[in-house]
Design goal:
The chain is of the alpha+beta class. It contains four helices and twelve strands, in the order ααβββββββααβββββ.
Length: about 210
């Protein structure tokens, strides 16, 4: 599946320290992130550090096609949440339909290269969906385009394989500012784990067999 495409209190989690990451973009008056032919135009930049930012990539840079139900587990400090996400990623859009264990609607996230729509009564209004889309792109989009995007912002984007003791390999994607690791994405079988060391949050997406 990964070869085909490189994806209790929820409000407390996102309105705590993790939300500080998202609010940086609203408060800053610094110049916009560099724009390239592979990035979206007219959308707010994403602050990877407090001073370095990138633009979202266009959907055509997806590494393949993904569609399916995922278990989404997240944590910030001692706070955690669990959701289900029906996720669709292809060369035209990223779409997440979020729900709880009982199938009740928890919100929707949509990106098509021209707009980001994040509609949820359960998440803080100040939370820009662009940052969630950025993390998904880091895991599921073409490595070379991601690398070029981060390099233009003065950041390092790496991708390498690590042999597992249990057999097989884990793909690791890493964002660094100099020698400081900002975010690490591990892809093992049908599970993608995103850990942001700078902001102190982590979430895991595991495909559920249907």
């Amino acid at each position: 599946m990964i070869k085909n495409i490189r994806f209790k209190n929820i409000c407390r989690l996102l309105s705590a320290g993790a939300l500080s990451l998202f609010l940086i973009s609203c408060a800053s008056t610094k110049k916009a992130a560099p724009e390239n032919s592979y990035t979206a135009k007219g959308l707010r930049p994403i602050y990877i550090t407090n001073s370095k930012k990138v633009n979202l990539l266009l959907p055509e840079n997806a590494a393949g096609i993904f569609e399916g139900l995922q278990l989404l587990n997240g944590s910030f400090g001692s706070t955690s949440f669990n959701l289900l996400s029906y996720t669709q990623i292809d060369a035209t859009a990223i779409s997440l339909s979020l729900m709880n264990d009982f199938g009740a609607d928890m919100g929707n996230l949509f990106y098509d290269g021209s707009q980001v729509i994040f509609d949820s009564a359960y998440f803080p209004k100040a939370l820009p969906g662009e940052y969630i889309i950025c993390d998904i792109q880091n895991a599921f989009y073409d490595f070379e385009v991601l690398k070029a995007n981060y390099t233009s912002a003065g950041l390092i984007f790496e991708d390498f394989l690590i042999c597992r003791e249990t057999g097989g390999a884990a793909e690791i994607r890493r964002i660094s500012d100099g020698k400081k690791v900002i975010e690490e994405i591990s892809i093992i079988d049908d599970t993608v784990t995103i850990k942001n060391h700078l902001r102190g949050y982590e979430y895991k997406l595991t495909k559920i067999e249907e």
